[in-house]
Amino acid sequence: MANLFDLSRLLNRREHHPGRRKLLRSISTGMMGAGLADMLALEAIAKNTGHRPGQAKRVLVIYEEGGISQMDTWDPKPQAPYDHRTPYQPIDTNVPGIQFSSLMPMTARQADKLSVIRSMTTARVAGHKEGCQEFFKGYRFDSSFDFPDIGSVVTDQIGTDCPQLPGYIFCPGINMPNHVTSTGFLPASRAPWKLGTRNLGENLSDPSWEVKSLQLNPKLSRERFQQRRELLTQLDRSAVAKTETAETLQAYYENAVDLLTSPRVQASLNLSTESDQTRDRYGRDHRGCCYLLGRKLIETGVRFVSVTVIQPPEHVNRPGYGQPKGVFLNWDHHEGIYQKGPCGGPQGMSNQERFGLPHPVMMPSLDRSFSALIEDMHTRGLLADTLVCFITEMGRTPRVNKWGGRDHWGRAMSVALAGAGVPGGQVIGATNKEGGDVTDRLYTPYDYAETIYRKLGIDTAARIRRPDGLPVEFTDGGHPIREVF
């Protein structure tokens, strides 16, 4: 187990030929960059062969940034005080007795495949970074040490079913997740591979969008690329001493090269391979493309995929998009949350001008894409062994503020789970009539994390060890959400 957390020591063992590793690295990194090549090279060395398969083989996390209003999605509150209730009434789902917001008509028709947790809470400090960090790590945001991302821990423990790709991928990887992600005490090779390169403004619906890290080094011609591939083949046939570690490294450096040419990998990152019907069902905007790409990566065998969405692309050309005091299209609607057009204006608490789009304008895109994802994965049989998690970092206040918006709220929020044996057609927990406080079965991000580990068959009772040998719990005192097993 020590080698799980000290790969540098393993790689420097005398039995591993340093010249061979250096040559392999120079071949692969010269084509695609050191970070991705090393990630692939090191990924399988620490794989835990004692892992017992669980109900889930893979995990797909849909993270909608900003803090979505619980009463405008999964937990409608028609009996809230008139001045503070949402103007959008509840609608029936395809499960008798369960209602969602009328802003989610298409998702309502997939309710039989979902477990909705209305009694989730988040960080004591209801901030974007704090809430995101707790959901991505399963530890309190103010923990005394830096715990790795859940995805990092998962790939460290059980590897991936697609060795040509990293086991933990951000699709595309933007804004808040970029600020909170870390490998903690695990090796850097456990970091998520980010398909995007910019913190804001990434637009997967742009026909020219591509995964930049998979493009050939501009200084490397096709002829030299082929020469380096041939060099790998010659090296494999050489008389250099081979060990199990060296063989593993060679295989994964070869995978780093194959990543550039593998039809399977290229197809998993190419939305044009999907039918027009599928593209239209998900939506051809940024959100629809992100959700669809997440499904394709899961289908390819990637262990842990986090889809991170911050804006629909049809509005990114508005002045100041992604700039200070400019358009910032997430769900953080402190002003004009129910306006039908652009919301925003001077925020009294910060004197900043931030303009965006309110819930009713953004919700149709989310409703379409999420319902398409669940429907599509069910049809393809992917829900049988994929745990799908829909999260946001916090809820919104039960009371509307003087700017016509709802502020940050951590005491009550909703998330949804599907697949991998999660019973569909159920609501877990409850909140009061305003949606502001949990009244039944309170759960936390630590319980959410524990549920993911248990679904994957990871024995959390065994503890995970830091490089100094200190055993650490997988979550910050979390317990599995029993209703989804």
From TrEMBL:
Q: Where is the signal peptide?
A: none
Q: Which residues form a coiled coil?
A: none
User: What InterPro entries does this protein map onto?
Assistant: Alkaline_phosphatase_core_sf (IPR017850), DUF1501 (IPR010869)
Q: What is this protein called?
A: DUF1501 domain-containing protein
Superkingdom of this entry's organism? Bacteria
